[in-house]
Structure formats: structure tokens, C-alpha cells
Amino acid sequence: MIHVAVLGYGTVGSGVVEVIESNNEAVSAKAGEEMHVKYILDLRDFPGDPYEDKVVHDFNVILNDPDISVVCEVMGGVGAAYQFTKQCLEAGKSVCTSNKELVAKHGAELLEIAKNKNCSYMFEASVGGGIPIIRPINKALTAEKLETISAILNGTTNYILTKMEKEGADYSETLKKAQELGYAERNPEADVEGHDACRKIAILSSLMVGKNVDSEKIYTEGITKITPADFAYAKAAGMTIKLLATSQASDDGSVMAMVAPALISREHPLAVVNDVFNGVFVTGNMLGDVMFYGRGAGKLPTASAVVSDVIDCARHIGRSSIVCIWDREEAKLVDISETEKVFFVRAEASAKAEVEAAFPGGKYLTAEGRTEDFGYFTAVMKEREFEEKCAALGEKILNRIRVA
Amino acid sequence: MIHVAVLGYGTVGSGVVEVIESNNEAVSAKAGEEMHVKYILDLRDFPGDPYEDKVVHDFNVILNDPDISVVCEVMGGVGAAYQFTKQCLEAGKSVCTSNKELVAKHGAELLEIAKNKNCSYMFEASVGGGIPIIRPINKALTAEKLETISAILNGTTNYILTKMEKEGADYSETLKKAQELGYAERNPEADVEGHDACRKIAILSSLMVGKNVDSEKIYTEGITKITPADFAYAKAAGMTIKLLATSQASDDGSVMAMVAPALISREHPLAVVNDVFNGVFVTGNMLGDVMFYGRGAGKLPTASAVVSDVIDCARHIGRSSIVCIWDREEAKLVDISETEKVFFVRAEASAKAEVEAAFPGGKYLTAEGRTEDFGYFTAVMKEREFEEKCAALGEKILNRIRVA
After folding, report:
1. Each residue's pLDDT tens digit, A156-174
2. Residue B242's closest CA among B211, B264, B220?
3. Complex-level ipTM
């Protein structure tokens, strides 16, 4: 019998209990042993809840119970969650989590402790919700040198961009709708400013290069400046706009990572990743392109991913099932201002000559019904140079978006 | 040191050797031990080949060498490949394969032998080439009850259909081009008649329900009857045509599986799976929809998948790393003639009244430039009834395609 403890009885926590109980036969068969939730840690009581008798308020009950071999940390945050996770691992109990903030911040350290204590720290649910992405990167693509990752990692912003595109609505109006539908938080900053996607690409990048990629050093730009006018030009160019999290490994071990809106071709597989769905597009040196697609959030998909990790731990009691390499050594992040790309600019109609002079060799773009502004693709140029030119043009530049 | 033997030095076999050697540092790090190819079994000699000294002609050299713990069977076929695989597993040597024909036919038996002998039989490369699909189904989606799989599993037919759609070319002309480019075999039957996709969906279906799904009992229809006219109507309906392999698990353990061309919406994620790419769209009871996308064939992608299995075996020497459930018991296959769906028919312009009488409650479809025929979507109806009506209408029905 595998006894599991769940830390935090919120949305994901109750989902974890539900998955283990609803799919108990399948889950136990896959684990090779019967599996049950023994404790649920939460500060609150849940009178009337079918599992109210499992609720405990003292973490030490779980820590000191030798029956407990696997713990699900689904509390979130980097305070108590970090302390509890560390204590569990040090006691040889495996921890499975959906807490991307903690994984991004302390993943390397927690993995090291787990390996030393012959247990596991697993975080399939921390990126892409229910989409199997961490495990394929670690286990299926082991024969690969991964070269690039381009991903849509945040369902809230993807929902907003999809609606803006399809309905021609503006950003704040669409955000408000998303909040009403529960797709965006009341304080949407972590999503719309790109921080959530940034933590996730930091995790994927760390696994790609085997060293620690510090999420706080990744250039991150949100979607708040995207307008229906930008979508009009994107459409005219056969493209769409997505909040892309990208990461590229160099041969010298350095990483070029960023989170920013980007124009991508309608033909690109990521272009059909719409609404709250996520997509992770990975290129390996042998394999070429692979994409993983699915619901990036939600109670049951995320819980399902946590439980897949619990099953993996259950099959490896007494030894670590960790196969990833994620050292504590910091990976060098490339200064993006020295990287080159094509940029889309939308500028005042009166500024055509100036824009063309600033960005020679580019291409004009017209869109139906747009007269007060125009679109323009620059030639390939350095970020730094582009920024300088934009600064000089000042408010004549209405918006600028990178082209993927 | 992990010593590997490769059975068959053809395209995939030479790819396996190349992946293990080119990515040796990464591969060995992931395996936890240095890994090398000790033998290559082939009837031919390879003078001048960098690995010619590893080539042996006698399988017993491999079977009787206690150093060899992992064998890659990349010979193909169900004759010698079956005998060799069985002998290796019975000797406790793990076998990794890309041989879908053998997996579809004898997978359940070979898995049973491997489990009994504490070794593994692994076949990530047998479906979807380099796309991680077998391992996610077995390991990542373990907390799920999988309900349906819809997939594009054959790159050759997908390439042909993509070209027909984009260039308006007819089937035989496009097949000829595909053969010139090496995307189709000189004898293309296994691909264009759907047999290759059928074997792959049989494997996925077996893993989905945990019982053996006999590929020979799966209804299979190829793409040879698809015409540019069908694409014209598909386009008018906002759809495209794909060779879909589908499988659906019922609560009573039975399976509804088939391979046939189908009209699918342009909005469906499988609609952007173009050219030689494959896509596997899976629905689980907790997770909802997930899709895996990538190159379904090719030397290095396939070899990369074989080597990911070799690494898994290397990490589990002396014990089985098999987690899938695939019993020898036969799964019951649902008679598709009793299933219901919408059908597209293309019929002679003169037969409008008869078509509408035969299929009441349907919807007409017009397409630019088409005058000699018309398109029609039937209401939802049983396959059997549809076939009877079509038979009665005879040659007035020019083509019929299921709607997904």
C-alpha cells in the first residue's frame, strides 16, 4: 500500500485527491500497489467534505509518519512550500509538485537533495499543466541534444490574444471578460506581464542545458501593449500574434531565453494553439521538430500530471526516479540586445519616410481599413540597434513586435 | 559500460549507431554509464564503413555474449526478427525496436516474456517515429483513463494528401512525385492502403485498453480514391482531408478502431499536421485533449527514439522497465457498421433529388468551379444504413468520405 499526503487542499489539491480516488483501479494498477491518500494538510477544516477525516493541520504529522512515502506539494509559493519540500526530501519522502515558482527558484537544490536521499523531486505539472512535457524531455528525448524550445506556456494570455484576434476586441475589454470567466486572476500581472511563462521557460531551459537558468535574468515582456491594429497587420501578413517563450542552447553552454509577444506564421504549428491551450515546440539535433499540445492549466489536467509523478515515485520507492540533469551551476544567459531578428513596427502614416530611413531594406505592410498607420517589417537587425532607432523615432512608432 | 548490439544495418540501424556515437557524451550521461555498440548483425559486409569491425553475421555471437544487455532489433519483418527478439528476451537481454509489424503482431507475448525474465521489450520508435508517444502514454498519462485517440500516423499518405490539397494535383501524379522524392516506396501499398497506420493504431489501442487489439480485424481504408474534387468541397466547408487512425475505448472494455480518410475541420489541431509529419491526438478522462506532433519517420528521428529506449533499459539492468499493461487477452472490436456518424458524399449533379431522398435532413455543399457534381453532408446515421443507400444509388455517388 502506497500512502500519499497532499499539502494544500485548494483547486489542484482537491483535484489530486479526486484523480487518485476516481481512477483508483487504474492508478493502483500502474503504481503496482494500491494507492491511497492518507493525509491532506490544510489550515482550514472542511466539514462535510468526503475526505474531511484526512485533513490535518500539523505538517509534522506527515513528516513523522513512516508510512508516507510520497508527498504532493500543491500549496504554491516559495515560503512554507519550500521548507516542507526540503524537510520531506531530507526524510527520504519523494515530493511531486505543480509549484512552478518553487521549481524555477529552488529546483536544482531540491533535485540534489532528493538524489542524495534516494528519493525523487518531480514537477511534471509545473509546466504545461496536464501536457506531458517534463517527462518526455527527461526520458523520451534522452538521446537528443535539444537545441531550441518555442512555447506558448500561459493559458490566460493565449486566451486573451485568441479572443482579440477573432473578435477584434481590445486588450482591456478582453482581459475583463477573461476575468469574469475565471480565466484570468483579479490581479492578472503574473500572467499578462509574462512572469508565469518566464518561470516555465526557465524550468525547461534548465532541463535543456543541464544547468540552472535564473528566471529573474530572462528578458520578459507581456501582452498589455498589443492592439487590434497589430492583429490587423498580422492577418494581412498571414500571421498571428502569440506570447512566445523561447530558449536556444549554444554549443558553449550559454542560453538565449526570452518571453515576448511575437508574430508567427499561420503555417506554424503553434499558430493553432488557441484559447487556454498551451503548446511546446522542441527541436532536437536528431529528431527535428516535435510539438506537445494540450490544456496548460485547470484542476483535473494539472492534478492528473501530479498523480502521474506520484505513480512514478511509487514504482521507485527507496531509490530516485530522477533522470534529469539540472546542476546548481548557473547557465550563462546571452544578452539579447546583441541578438538579431526581424521586427514588425506599426507607425504613424505620416512617418513613412523616417521609418524607411531608419530601417532600410524592410517591407511595407497594408491592412484593410487602416489609414492612420502602416505596418513595416525591418530587415534582420540587432535588438540594440533596433531599440536605438525606435527611441529616436519616439511616438511616431505606435508599436513594435518581434517576428519569430 | 553498457554494450549494445544492433540487429540490422539498414537505414534505422545505421542511424542508431550514429546517434549513440554522435551524442555519446549526452547518451552515456543519461544512461548513467558509458554506452557503446559492440556488434552489428547483418548478412552483408560493409568494407570501408567506420564500424565495419563490429559487423557479425552470426546471431549466436550476440546471444551468447554475456556483455550484451541491450539489443536493438531494427531488421523489420516478423520472421527472423521475431525469433531473435524472443531468444534475446528469454536470455534476459532487453530488446528495443522500431518494428511496428512485429510489435502489432506479437507485442503482448514479447512483453510477457520480458516481464518474466526481468528485462524489457520497448517500442517507442514503432509509432510516430521520433515523436515521444508510447512513453507518454505509458508513463506520463498513467493517472488517466484514455478514452479516444485520433491520429495521423503515416507520413507518406499525409505528404500525398497535403500536396493534393495545396497543388490541386490528382492522386497518381502526386504518388509518383512522392516516389521520386523517396517519400513513398516503389510498392506503396502498405502506406496508401492504410496498413501501416493500421498496425500503429493497433499498438496504441492495445496500450489504451490493456488488452490485445488485433490489427487484422481493424477496418482499414486507404487514400487511393481521394480526388482534387473532394478537396475542393472540403475547402468550401472549411475542412481538409486526412487519413485518420482512430480508436475509442468503451466502458465495457471493447474498442472502436478504424483507419480511413476523413474530413476534419481546419480548426482542429490535426489539420496543421502537414507533409510527412505525424500527429497523435489523445483524450483522457481527467486531462482532456493532448496532441503529440513531429516527424513520423526518417533515419535519425526513428533512431533517436530507439536510443531513448536503450537508455531506459540501461538504467534498469536486471529489472524490467516496462510499465504498460498489454495482456494477451483479445480486446473486443466493435462492428463499425453499427456506429453512427456524418458522411460527405460527392454525387453527379443530376442526382440531387435521389441523394436528398436517400439521405434526408442533410446539407448541400457547393464549391467554386464544380458544376458536374455536388457535395452533400448527410445527417448522423449508421454506417450500415449509409452503405445500403450508397449501394442503391450506384455510380451516381462519385465518392464518400467520413466526417470526423
Report:
1. 999 999 999 999 999 999 9
2. B264
3. 0.83
**Collapsing DSSP states into helix, strand and coil, what is residue A319?**
coil
C-alpha cell read off for B297: 519517420
Residue A400 is predicted with a pLDDT of 97
* Interface contact flag, B308 A140, Cβ < 8 Å: yes
Q: Nearest by CB to A323, from B269, B305, B315: name it.
A: B315
Q: What are phi and psi of A315, to 5 degrees?
A: -80, -5
3-state helix, strand, coil in chain A (%, to 5): 40, 25, 35
A287:B295 CB<8 A: yes
Residue A310 pLDDT: 96
The answer to whether the beta carbons of residues B135 and B151 sit under 8 Å apart is no
Q: Which residues of B touch A310 (CB under 8 A)?
A: 143
CB contact under 8 A, B290 and A293: yes
Q: Which residues contact B280 (CB under 8 A, 6 or more apart)?
A: B127, B128, B131, B133, B149, B151, B152, B153, B204, B291, B292, B293
CA atoms of A182 and A159, how far apart (whole Å): 11
Query: Residue range A222-231: average pLDDT?
Result: 97
End-to-end C-alpha distance for chain B, whole angstroms:
50
**Mutual angle of helices A155-167 and A171-180, in 10-degree steps:** 120
Shortest alpha-carbon distance between residue B290 and chain A (Å): 4
Determine contact, residues B203/B123, Cβ cutoff 8 Å: yes
Predicted confidence band at B245 (pLDDT cuts at 50, 70, 90)? very high
Kindly indicate the confidence band of residue B20, based on its pLDDT and cuts at 50, 70 and 90. very high
With CB atoms and an 8 Å threshold, state whether B271 touches A272.
Answer: yes
User: Cβ contacts (< 8 Å) between A142 and chain B: which residues?
Assistant: 26-27, 30-31, 307-308, 311-312
CA distance A294 to A192: 20
Contacts of residue A327, defined as CB under 8 A and 6 or more positions apart, other chains included, come to: A108, A210, A211, A212
At B6 the pLDDT is 98
Compute, in degrees rounded to 10, the torsion defined by CA atoms A182, A261, A263, A294: -40
Contacts of A23 in chain B (CB under 8 A): 143-145, 285-286
How do residues A264-278 score in pLDDT, each as one tens digit?
999 899 998 999 999
How many C-beta atoms surround the C-beta of residue A133 within 10 A? 33
The pLDDT of residue A252 is 86
Catalytic residues of B: 200
CB contact under 8 A, B286 and A292: no
Residue A313 has pLDDT above 90, yes or no: yes
Count Cβ atoms within 10 A of the Cβ of residue B235 and give its class: 0-12 exposed, 13-18 middle, 19 or more buried: middle
Closest Cα in chain B to A301: B287
**Angstrom distance (rounded) from CA B177 to CA B159:** 10
Q: What is the DSSP letter of A137?
A: I
Which of A120, A147, A304 should we substitute to test contact with B (largest number of B Cβ atoms within 10 Å)? A304
Residue type at position A346: R
**Predicted confidence band at B48 (pLDDT cuts at 50, 70, 90)?**
very high
